[in-house]
Automatic annotation (TrEMBL):
Entry protein name: Aspartokinase
Pathway annotation from the record: Amino-acid biosynthesis; L-threonine biosynthesis; L-threonine from L-aspartate: step 1/5; Amino-acid biosynthesis; L-lysine biosynthesis via DAP pathway; (S)-tetrahydrodipicolinate from L-aspartate: step 1/4; Amino-acid biosynthesis; L-methionine biosynthesis via de novo pathway; L-homoserine from L-aspartate: step 1/3
MF terms (GO), sorted A to Z: aspartate kinase activity
Keyword vocabulary terms for this entry: Amino-acid biosynthesis, ATP-binding, Kinase, Lysine biosynthesis, Nucleotide-binding, Transferase
Species annotation: Candidatus Marimicrobium litorale
Length: 413
């Protein structure tokens, strides 16, 4: 008998018919004797609908109230799924995040899980019930409802799997695994049977929304066996593992991630003196804005141009902070550009293969795509380009690195 945490995303519970299908599937697992905890998202489109309602009232509502609103989407689906299970003769109980004591910090709309009290869940499991838990939400120490950021139901599932020492955490979604790149953008994208936590973390951080970043972080930290699968089609999916399969030749690149949610800010003519980067980025950090790629050019006339990227949602706030900083530093103009995107090639194989960067830059050059900024990690190279070239860039890199082909299986030689 195994304990499995299964998470079903928004499209998988997007209608009553689909909720019934999910219930059928879960009932099947339960009938096999497994202990099941199900985590569900809100019905597809619901979180966006709630966000739109709020924006009709106020541009930036108080984050605490946003969380009270946004958490309702998942409360609907847990109840409906429990009903659908009960109808099939399966004992099921639905819970909000707060009810199962998913304790988070108080960073409303992007809260982090601190602790989970598993006592109540264990009691229900012992009693033979299926537990249906609302994803994406928790409660802070004072009892306020919090949410975990977009895509946060993945993190709820992994965190519950870690707390309960589940045998596997299964993320059911509308694709049958993690692909070499978003299969909706590149026709030849290929499902990866396995991908390492390290690679998955880079891909998620660089924009592959198939798994939320924090879910991957959590799974890596607590060594939770994690698998991505199709909700309604049978198949092995993708296993996220600690190690690459040693029988397979390690490909140089495993995947390509991209992110349209980027905007670029430049502050010109900044005095080239020690501490200036801190004077610029300190106030940005204090405004709770995350900075991504940073470039500072070489100084000629004792001033430098300082460029960095932020999420598009944060552009207006970052720009107003930067205008204030510019006048304090007697710097030049502040320029903003939101029509940019980031493309990243990711692979642990990069560690043992030279020339990945030059191959990437050559492929982009051949298509006439200009690179505005570059950043790297040990297993990733990212470039900022004009947004209009994004799909072309992803396609040409996918084919340049031969990602549509299966890597060779050395065990057959
Ligand atoms: P859910 O609602 O189930 O959480 P998401 O929409 O959050 O589903 O994530 C699944 C989507 O992620 C897919 O439909 C696909 O378009 C997208 N995606 C992006 N990159 C990848 C990738 N490398 N592999 C698979 N899917 C990807
Ligand atoms: N409903 C939330 C969202 O749309 C959480 C999730 O689906 O994981 O982002
Ligand atoms: Mg998701």
């Amino acid at each position: 008998m195994s304990l499995i945490v299964q998470k079903f995303g928004g499209t998988s519970v997007g209608s009553i018919e689909r909720i019934e299908q999910v219930a059928e599937k879960v009932a099947g697992f339960h009938a096999n004797g497994d202990d099941i905890v199900v985590v569900v998202s809100a019905m597809s489109g619901e979180t966006n609908r709630l966000l739109a309602l709020a924006s009709e009232i106020q541009d930036q509502p108080v984050a605490r109230e946003m969380d009270v609103l946004l958490s309702t989407g998942e409360q609907v689906t847990v109840a409906l799924l429990s009903m659908a299970l009960n109808k099939r003769g399966v004992k099921a109980r639905s819970y909000t995040g707060g009810q199962v004591r998913i304790l988070t910090d108080s960073a409303h709309t992007k809260a982090r899980i601190r602790e989970i009290d598993d006592a109540r869940m264990r009691r229900d499991l012992e009693d033979g019930s299926v537990l249906v838990v609302a994803g994406f939400q928790g409660v802070d120490e004072s009892g306020n409802i919090t949410t975990l950021g977009r895509g946060g139901s993945d993190t709820t599932a992994v965190a519950l799997a870690a707390a309960l020492h589940a045998d596997e955490c299964q993320i059911y979604t509308d694709v049958d695994g993690v692909y070499t790149t978003d299969p909706r953008v590149v026709d030849g994208a290929r499902r990866l049977p396995r991908v390492t936590f390290e690679e998955m973390l880079e891909m998620a951080s660089m924009g592959s929304k198939v798994l939320q970043i924090r879910a991957v972080e959590f799974a890596g930290k607590y060594n939770v066996p994690l698998r991505v699968l199709h909700s309604f089609e049978d198949g092995p999916g993708t296993l996220i593992t600690l190690e690459v399969d040693s029988a397979m030749e390690t490909p140089t690149i495993s995947g390509i991630a991209f992110n349209r949610d980027e905007a670029k800010l430049t502050i010109e003519g900044v005095p080239d003196t020690p501490g200036v980067a801190y004077k610029i980025l300190g106030p940005i950090g204090e405004a709770n804005i995350e900075v991504d790629v940073i470039v500072q050019n070489v100084s000629h006339d004792k001033t430098v141009d300082f460029t960095f990227t932020v999420s598009r949602n944060d552009l207006a706030a970052a720009q107003s902070v930067l205008c204030r900083v510019a006048s304090e530093l007697s710097a030049g103009e502040v320029c903003a550009d939101s029509k940019i995107a980031k493309v990243s090639v990711v692979g642990v194989g990069m560690r043992s293969h030279a020339g990945v960067a030059s191959q990437m830059f050559a492929a982009l050059a051949e298509e006439g795509i200009n690179i505005m900024m570059i950043t790297t990690s040990e297993i990733r190279i990212s470039v900022i380009i004009e947004e209009k070239f994004l799909e072309l860039a992803v396609r040409c890199l996918h084919s340049s690195f031969g990602l549509e082909r299966e890597p060779k299986d050395e065990s057959t030689h």
